[in-house]
Amino acid sequence: MLNKEYDYCQYLASQYPKETLQIGLDKVTQCLNSKNRSSFCKEDSLPRLAMYLKGALELAK
Question: Burial level of 13, CB count in 10 A (0-12/13-18/19+)?
Answer without folding.
Answer: buried
